[in-house]
Amino acid sequence: MPKPRSTLAAAAAVLLAALTACGRGGGSGGAGDPDLPLAGTHWTVTAVTVDGSRSKAPGGAAVEFTRDGRARGSTGCNHFGGTAAVAGATVTVSPDEVTEVGCPEDRRRFETAFLAAFTGPLTGTLEDGVLTLASADAGRKVELAAEPSAPLRGTSWKIDGLVSGDTAGSLPEGGDKARFVVGADGRITGNLGCNGFSAAAEVDEKARTLTVEGPAATTRMMCTSPQMALETKLYELLDGPLSYRLDHRTLTLVDGAGEGLTARAEPAR
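Above: the chain's sequence. Below: its structure in token form.
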């Protein structure tokens, strides 16, 4: 894992202290106003404004507010994290960690602007799934849009990793073709590395389980040894009841022993 940028964290802390001092007494809303409902939603960053200059966000820029008072996400270049306290319409953000991945200059410029705008006490306005966080003088502004999670059914899920207990790893060699769709017709279809397959599947949304009922119908192609080995592993995993967890565009499926897989929602065509 890349190391957090301690210099950025320190600079953000200094800037937060200054902004907080300037913003005392200027909060919006009364003490009894309900907090903005930010947690549990994936927020795509659409643009930021710093000193009157508005920049559109690159692909992948996003924010998630957790229920334990954190904000995390991607600037479109690096991943970041920090504290985020919500009091009524006021959101006080303090980024305290940023990774150090090299990116193209335009993304680096946006990242600098985003981290400057997404800091300090900000007044939030939420309307029709659009969230705007602005400083008291409106000189800094972050524009975000709520993006719903991909549905389990009807989404093309590209398998990208394997799970074993608390350990998750990337998919081994031979997994480029591995993907599946859970259809509304009660079947799961796709490819697990080499051959196409189809099987009956039952989804229990209340229990959050997906049960694949074998045997699966498959094609009979011969592929490379890594592809065949992966296919065998995935067939073993997709057998019987599996617990599922949806996190925006990521799906995790595990069996009772904690063995399973992760998959990403592919863009709609």
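The first strand starts at residue 42 and ends at 50.
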